[in-house]
Amino acid sequence: METLRRVEHIMGLPISVDLRDGDAALAERAFAWLREADAQFSPFKPDSEVSRLDRGELSREELTPDLVEVLSLCDWYEQSTGGAFTARVPGRGLDPCAVVKGWAVQRAADILRQGGATTFCVNAGGDVVTAGEPEAGKPWRVGVRHPDLADQVSVVLGVRDGAVATSALYERGQHILDGRTGLPVTGLLSVTVFSDDLAIADTTATAAFTLGKDGIEWAASQEDCEVFIVDEDRRVYSSPGLPVHIC
Amino acid sequence: MKRAIPVLALSVAGLVPVWLYSPGAAHEGELTEVAAPEVPQQQQQAAPQTTTSAPKATGSTPTPQQQQQQTQQQQTPQQAQTRSVSGPAVNTSEGTVQVQVTFQGTKITDVKALRAPNSNPTRMALPLLRESALKAQSADIDTVSGATATSDGYKQSLQAAIDGAQ
């Protein structure tokens, strides 16, 4: 089996696949799905299903099961955060991107698994899904970027089959809005969530961010989620179950 | 609701120094002086607006159950003993809440909700978070988790170096 590495920019994200036991055709299937997902769910493409729904051209009954799934995830997290996390920020169009990203990348990883791959690492803009062991007996070493120092990590997680997502402010500026106020959220610098599934990990990280400091306890109490959170005072809060890798 | 459980847990936690304290005759007065200020402070941090619904846990008026615990503690004053303590059942607007806190000596090792309303999507597992200072390291890693959204950001990122794409 060959090792294959490929990077492509889809959904505005650099997506890297490090596939240790698959072929180029399998990797292409995963990337093809991500391009499809972008075409279907992007609020920036006028003919996407999301844009058509937002313009009232589709009724709820006409939606694809995939979009219904994405919207129910959005609703669940909106309820759970009391509206801080929302796909419908007042004055803006429907934007389910925060859920779509992790959800679509998790499905890309599932495509690799279903295609027979057992050992791979997919990284989509810093959100990671891993499978198997890159070396016998060793987990994938997933470094969590230091919020202030781009070339350093603040912790390393050892992950076999799992997902790690980080929501942070260091690069995008203040891009995460509190749905209750429409204002940029403050309080946290970086929220990292480890879970079995990237849709859960990624949405939990983003939703926690929208809650500010209240998000620390909220995220840690989510089922099957372990957290590593840095607040604006550079204090770190981590779950005892976090799979910290001792280098 | 989300706040009620931490408040209850902290209230139970606040009682522990009281229960674990083995007073000598000369120190009897310290029981309330030492323990009492701690509890309201913790409650304030956790949920300032729920103090009215929080149980009274100042330790100044022990219930018969507490007195019994105290007596047991005096008889077996082992420091690193594991014990579970159940807090009072408290009625909230969404149902009855009761927590159990497990201690190893004076350290909390587990908190669980004995009774909690089943009102989804509230989750009942109460996390015990570790708090530490932020550290920086340049470790050997396979991939990087971080918020890398832009192409420019990616080009300069650790992940790009790992992908060999610089």
Automatic annotation (TrEMBL), chain B:
Biased amino acid composition, Polar residues: 83-97
Gene Ontology MF terms in the entry: FMN binding
GO CC terms in record: membrane
Annotated region described as Disordered, given as residue ranges: 31-97
This protein's UniProt keywords: Signal
Compositional bias per record (Low complexity), positions renumbered to this chain: 35-82
Residue ranges of domain FMN-binding in the record: 93-165
Alphabetized InterPro entries for the sequence: FMN-bd
Signal peptide: 1-28
Transmembrane segments: none
Full protein name: FMN-binding protein
